[in-house]
UniProtKB/TrEMBL annotation:
<protein>
    <recommendedName>
        <fullName>Magnesium transporter NIPA</fullName>
    </recommendedName>
</protein>
<feature type="transmembrane region" description="Helical">
    <location>
        <begin position="203"/>
        <end position="221"/>
    </location>
</feature>
<feature type="compositionally biased region" description="Basic and acidic residues">
    <location>
        <begin position="318"/>
        <end position="328"/>
    </location>
</feature>
<feature type="signal peptide">
    <location>
        <begin position="1"/>
        <end position="21"/>
    </location>
</feature>
<feature type="transmembrane region" description="Helical">
    <location>
        <begin position="109"/>
        <end position="128"/>
    </location>
</feature>
<feature type="region of interest" description="Disordered">
    <location>
        <begin position="295"/>
        <end position="328"/>
    </location>
</feature>
<keyword id="KW-1133">Transmembrane helix</keyword>
<feature type="transmembrane region" description="Helical">
    <location>
        <begin position="168"/>
        <end position="191"/>
    </location>
</feature>
<keyword id="KW-0732">Signal</keyword>
<feature type="transmembrane region" description="Helical">
    <location>
        <begin position="260"/>
        <end position="283"/>
    </location>
</feature>
<feature type="transmembrane region" description="Helical">
    <location>
        <begin position="140"/>
        <end position="161"/>
    </location>
</feature>
<keyword id="KW-0472">Membrane</keyword>
<dbReference type="InterPro" id="IPR037185">
    <property type="entry name" value="EmrE-like"/>
</dbReference>
<feature type="transmembrane region" description="Helical">
    <location>
        <begin position="56"/>
        <end position="89"/>
    </location>
</feature>
<keyword id="KW-0812">Transmembrane</keyword>
<feature type="transmembrane region" description="Helical">
    <location>
        <begin position="233"/>
        <end position="254"/>
    </location>
</feature>
Length: 328
């Protein structure tokens, strides 16, 4: 029954990835229409009036619900890496929407992300046990770590938001979502194992922390949409999010089975590294990234060099007797 529930969780996570991919593409294109490189709070009312953004929000909500259900059946280590499937779907949808031709290096990056994620999931199913108990110490450790991270990332965004690039917001959202997935998993375990009513044993501090972190992560994602293509955003999330969840699951929550071996751990690390390389390649060679880079280069060439004076307009011809060197 344990293996059956794990594979059912994989199926639900795949369906969740489809919803997240379509929702991400819809929201990303809507944000790009409203914000020019940077999202401001005053842009929110305009987004709320756009059907594409609202449809994306509904799909993201459905995908999140499916992901939560999957987390109730399997470990974070198994469920979270499957989100990499969303990368392929989002890339294809966005290329069609923007009429972009996907270049060879972009396909290579997608292949690296997908292959690395597939190997990682296969190994994770074999080395994790969703039935293992989670100690209160482990849960409190995750909550404290997330509180600190939320404060650091939130303050950094508030103080240096104008100078931070899209990479900061993608990485920050991925880290936050990885922690949120772990706390969702722990909350579901408490509900399922409650001796009284389902909510008797819920750690409400963990729930509140997860909600705040999820809201901050959502703002980070919307800001990243304004700074880059949605498939690049989801590429970062589908690699960083599961890596954080896996590290917490193995190192803090103790989800690894007793037979977990060093070679298998090395294989998982290599697979994760391959996926990260894929994201790095995508961030440099995505056709929309290249397009934006070329546009910025054109703008830079059109602007005068700092410190140099703009060329003066030619003076009109003066009469001969007014020219220098001529005297009556």
């Amino acid at each position: 029954m344990g293996a059956m529930s794990q594979w059912l969780a994989v199926a639900l996570a795949l369906l969740s990835a489809v919803c997240l991919a379509v929702g991400t593409q819809q929201q990303g294109s809507a944000v790009a229409d409203v914000a020019d490189g940077r999202l401001a709070l005053r842009s929110i009312p305009a987004l709320l009036r756009r059907p594409r953004w609202l449809l994306g929000l509904a799909l993201l909500g459905a995908g999140t619900g499916l992901n939560v259900t999957a987390l109730g059946l399997a470990t974070v280590t198994v469920v979270q890496p499957i989100g990499v499937v969303a990368l392929v779907i989002t890339t294809l949808l966005h290329a069609r929407h923007r009429r972009l031709r996907i270049n060879r290096r972009t396909w290579t990056a997608i292949g690296l992300c997908t292959a690395g994620g597939a190997v990682f999931v296969t190994c994770a199913v074999a080395v994790t046990d969703p039935a293992q108990g989670i100690s209160q110490w482990a849960e409190h450790t995750v909550v404290v770590m997330l509180v600190v991270l939320t404060c650091v990332l939130g303050v950094s965004a508030a103080m240096f938001g104008r100078s931070l690039g899209g990479t900061f917001y993608v990485v920050g959202a991925g880290i936050l979502y990885g922690f949120v997935a772990v706390l969702v998993r722990l909350t579901l375990i408490r509900i399922q194992g409650s001796a009284g009513t389902p909510l008797d044993d819920v750690n409400w501090l963990a729930v509140g922390t997860a909600v705040v972190a999820a809201m901050l992560g959502g703002w980070f994602v919307q800001t990243a949409f304004a700074a880059g293509p949605p498939d690049l955003v989801i590429a970062g999330l589908t690699v960083i999010d599961p890596m954080v969840g896996v590290l917490l699951g193995l190192l803090v929550l103790g989800e690894a089975v007793p037979g977990f071996s060093v070679p298998l751990g090395v294989l998982m690390a290599v697979a994760g590294g391959v996926a990260i390389v894929g994201v790095a390649v995508l961030s440099q060679h995505h056709p929309e990234v290249l397009e934006r880079r070329a546009e910025l280069a054109r703008r830079d060439r059109a602007q005068p060099v700092p410190g140099s004076s703009a060329p003066r307009p030619a003076a009109p011809d003066r009469p001969a007797h007014d020219r220098p060197g001529r005297h009556a």
